[in-house]
Write a structure and sequence with these properties.
235 residues, alpha+beta, six-stranded antiparallel beta sheet, two-stranded antiparallel sheet, 8 strands
């Protein structure tokens, strides 16, 4: 497997470049990569330069960072490992969704290809992880994803019907836990409500429940939703 020829540190850089571009149209730069990986800019810049020299990245000085085909293969393999491990920890070992990210960050570098294949088969070849993120397939293809940020959906009166939570951003485990404690998890069915006057809050209720839940736009920008009639993806 091509990623086995790449150090764990470099695997993290390549995965970071891919995930930074997964949910944003903004250019990926050395600065954003450094923040994602959690290192100094100078450290990230050196790593990006080396990976570009090795053919894994395309990067012009002071410009955007992009994966080459070679780098993309490694990045997708690592994202696949990470998300399958997260799914395994939740479905098989009873972890909560807010507990799995850091565990998967360690385990993704340690388990064998055979174990990843067995996990995939055991779980029924899921297309989403516990947060709703698409799990890349073994052939490198990525399941289609169609949803709207809750923060955007809340601005439109046409979205007052029942919605399904399609994704929870997992960058902040505390926010994942905050939302889960209010029933806002991947797969939950919700109905948007009118927010309080002069408020930036988003108000909603779980489908079939009377109690309303409200939270600010920071949390609403971490949730993706879709109309219920659009068809649920394979879980």
């Amino acid at each position: 497997m091509v990623f086995s020829q790449v150090s764990a540190s470099n695997q993290n850089y390549l995965k970071a470049v891919w995930t930074l571009g997964e949910w944003s149209d903004e250019a990926v730069t050395a600065t954003t990569v450094a923040a994602k990986v959690g290192v100094r800019l100078s450290t990230a810049s050196d790593a990006i330069r080396r990976l570009a020299e090795q053919g894994y990245l395309a990067h012009a000085p002071y410009g955007a960072v992009a994966l080459t085909d070679k780098g993309l293969a490694v990045a997708l393999a690592m994202v696949r490992r990470h998300r399958l491990i997260e799914a395994f920890l939740v479905e098989t070992l009873g972890y909560r969704a807010d507990q799995v990210h850091e565990e998967a960050e360690v385990l993704e570098h340690a388990v064998s290809d055979f174990m990843i294949e067995r996990i995939d088969a055991q779980l029924g070849r899921p297309e989403r992880d516990p947060h709703g993120d698409p799990i890349p397939r073994a052939d490198g293809s990525v399941p289609a994803f169609g949803a709207l940020l809750l923060a955007e959906a809340a601005r439109s009166a046409s979205n007052r019907g029942a919605l399904r939570v399609e994704r929870i951003a997992d960058d902040d485990p505390e926010l994942v836990r905050f939302l889960a404690e209010r029933g806002i998890v991947y797969g939950a069915e919700v109905v948007l409500r009118e927010p309080p006057p002069y408020s930036e809050a988003v108000a909603l209720s779980l489908r079939g429940a009377r109690e309303e839940v409200s939270f600010g736009m920071q949390a609403a920008r971490a949730v993706w939703v879709a109309a219920l009639d659009e068809g649920a993806p394979k879980r």
